[in-house]
């Protein structure tokens, strides 16, 4: 019973983590009060490994179209069918290109699968604070998996890293962000929101900083990406 309770609590931590209020039933719950949103900022990280959420209201931004003939990322070669051959290659890196709205699964020096993604509505550059709607830029790791969440399968990302913490402190010291600003947490790879459809949700950047795929795509990613796998997010 205790294990089940902790699992439900972990899912609950993400209710305000990656998008505006999700539709997880035919009649979505009412939007949280300001006090409830504020209280979510002070919650400690989940000891099971899933990161807790950020809290803000998402504002969607159109995602630019990406031509089907996009080249491989610089320095890598592409073999898009490799993931489905036996034996399947071991994925060593998840590479996210924000401007191109692409997520690549990389094995060694080879891209073995590429997906189009939706991102945070805050646009380019590193994440500076909680609530800015920006998908972070940097080197992270996959911290764990939630098989069930308001956004289908969810893979946690180890934001903030040391560079993020240093940048956040410097920005406060320089007066570029408010002194009471939080650095944010709860970044993840996950599926679409419940009131959206596969494919369609990628027409805009709607998350609070997370990286969203279609539901079948995140399930596939979760089969090949393990806890501890490196994730690199670039502009």
What does this protein structure show overall?
The protein is of the alpha/beta class and 235 residues long. It has one domain: L,D-transpeptidase catalytic domain-like (Beta Barrel). The strands form two sheets. A nine-stranded mixed beta sheet has the order 2-5-4-3-11-6-7-8-10, covered by helices on one side. Strands 1-9 form a two-stranded antiparallel ribbon. A hairpin with a 2-residue loop joins strand 4 and strand 5.
Assembly state: single chain
CATH level 3 topology = L,D-transpeptidase catalytic domain-like
The tally of strands reads 11
SSE string, helices as H and strands as E: HHEEEEEEEHEEEHE
- The gross shape turns out to be globular
**CA(first)-CA(last) distance:** 44 Å
**Count of spatially separate domains:** 1
CATH class: Mainly Beta
- What is the assigned CATH homologous superfamily? L,D-transpeptidase catalytic domain-like
Class based on secondary structure composition and strand pairing = alpha/beta
Quick overview:
The protein has helices spanning 2-13, 34-40, 162-173, 215-224; strands at residues 61-62, 77-78, 93-97, 102-107, 110-116, 138-146, 154-157, 188-190, 204-205, 211-212, 230-234. The protein is an alpha/beta fold and 235 residues long.
List the helices and strands and how they pair.
Layout lengths: L1 H12 L20 H7 L20 E2 L14 E2 L14 E5 L4 E6 L2 E7 L21 E9 L7 E4 L4 H12 L14 E3 L13 E2 L5 E2 L2 H10 L5 E5 L1
């Amino acid at each position: 019973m205790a294990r089940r309770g902790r699992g439900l609590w972990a899912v609950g931590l993400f209710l305000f983590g990656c998008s505006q209020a999700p539709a997880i039933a035919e009649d979505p719950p009412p939007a949280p009060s300001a006090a409830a949103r504020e209280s979510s900022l002070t919650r400690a990280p989940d000891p099971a490994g899933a990161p807790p959420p950020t809290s803000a209201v998402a504002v969607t931004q159109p995602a630019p179209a990406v031509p089907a003939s996009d080249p491989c990322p610089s320095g890598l070669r592409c073999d898009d069918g490799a993931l489905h051959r036996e034996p399947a290659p071991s994925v060593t890196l998840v590479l996210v290109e924000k401007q191109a709205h692409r997520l690549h699964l990389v094995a060694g020096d080879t891209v073995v699968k590429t997906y189009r993604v939706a991102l945070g509505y805050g646009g380019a550059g590193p994440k500076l604070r909680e609530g800015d709607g920006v998908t972070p830029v940097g080197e992270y790791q996959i911290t764990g998996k939630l098989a069930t969440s308001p956004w289908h399968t969810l893979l946690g990302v180890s934001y903030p890293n040391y560079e993020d913490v240093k940048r956040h402190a410097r920005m406060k010291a320089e007066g570029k962000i408010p002194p009471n600003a939080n650095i944010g947490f709860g970044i993840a790879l996950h599926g679409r929101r419940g009131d959206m459809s596969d494919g369609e949700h990628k027409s805009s950047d709607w998350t609070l900083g997370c990286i969203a795929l279609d539901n079948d795509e995140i399930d596939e990613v979760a089969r090949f990406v393990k806890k501890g796998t490196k994730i690199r997010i670039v502009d």
